[in-house]
Amino acid sequence: MSKSVRKLVEESKEQGYTEIDLGDKGLSKIADIPGLTQLRNLVRLTLSHNRLTTLPESIGGLENLEYLNVFHNHIEELPMSLGSLKKLRHFNAAVNRLSSLPRGLGTASGLEILDLTYNNLQRESLPGNFSVMKQLRALYLGDNDFETLPEEIGELRNLQVLVLRDNDLIALPKTIGNLTRLKELHLQNNRLTTLPPEMDFLLGELDMANPRHVFKADGNAWIQQLEDQIVLGPSHVFEYIKTDGYKSVYERHIDSGAVPPPKKDKEKNAKRSRKK
Question: How far is CA 81 from the centre of its chain?
């Protein structure tokens, strides 16, 4: 650990700083930074662009922490003690090597923004209490390995932003239609062929005349009837999936037991590259 890092932590303790930025400091272990997890006044902690492989359980002692940024590290595992951070509102763990999430994350009930982009997560990676995070407004799961999502995702009813792009999704749960507060839904570059008809109300709430409302779904293997509407634009998609004709097409497609599209080789290569 460099002298500058040690000095910054000591100053933070003496002065009662509420923010500390340790980004891009070449850090590999939090345990090598004496006193860091004892800074009870910290509200914001930035540890991005380092070489961390894990976070210590002692991080749960930062009782006033609201913002935690560990973006772009080598983290493979998160501690259960994250659930002790009752004031945590924004957690950025994007661009790491996570393949599972601790049950403790689900008890961080105050979380509003959770960024897990570009990891190695799949459906089985999510803790059983994932849906407890009722305050979640933005969930970023892009660039992972999801083929399906749990039905419980529909319980995150305060979600306004849901990013699922660049996964291996072959289907969406019907309960996604319960997310009626969504303003952004990103489904690009998956293996989707249909949208559940239950999404008709959800999509109807998206106002494409509002620049803050976003629906993106290109780069999938949509059945022809749906592809035709996606080419025309989101509003056409919204109207089409409300129709009895689409519901009939959807049911026939599901009943046919169609084989999901194959995974894309370029996605596999991307997964390998981030593990190096």
Answer: 19
Going through 112-240 in order, the beta strands assigned E by DSSP cover 113-115, 138-140, 161-163, 184-186, 214-216
DSSP designation for 77: B
First to last CA, the chain: 23
Residue 165 pLDDT: 98
Q: Give φ, ψ of 90 to 5 degrees.
A: -130, 120
What would the pLDDT profile of 205-261 be if each residue is shown by its tens digit? 777 778 888 999 999 999 999 999 999 988 899 899 999 999 999 999 999 988 999
Residue closest to 119 by CA, chosen among 186, 172, 166, 162: 166
d(CA 101, CA 119): 11
Question: What is the C-alpha separation between 10 and 192, in angstroms, rounded?
Answer: 52
What does the angle CA 121 – CA 127 – CA 131 come to, to the nearest 5 degrees?
105
The residue with tokens 């792009």 is 165
Q: Using CA atoms, how far apart are residues 103 and 54, in angstroms rounded to an integer?
A: 16
Q: Which two tokens stand for residue 231?
A: 């080419």
Residues 6+ apart with CB under 8 A from 232: none
CA nearest to 112, candidates 133, 93, 85, 142: 133
Q: Is 12 left (phi over 0), alpha (psi -120 to 50) or beta?
A: alpha
Chain-centroid distance, C-alpha 66: 18
Q: In what order do the strands lie in the sheet with 138-140?
A: 19-21, 44-46, 67-69, 90-92, 113-115, 138-140, 161-163, 184-186, 214-216
Report the C-alpha gap between 4 and 1 in whole angstroms.
8
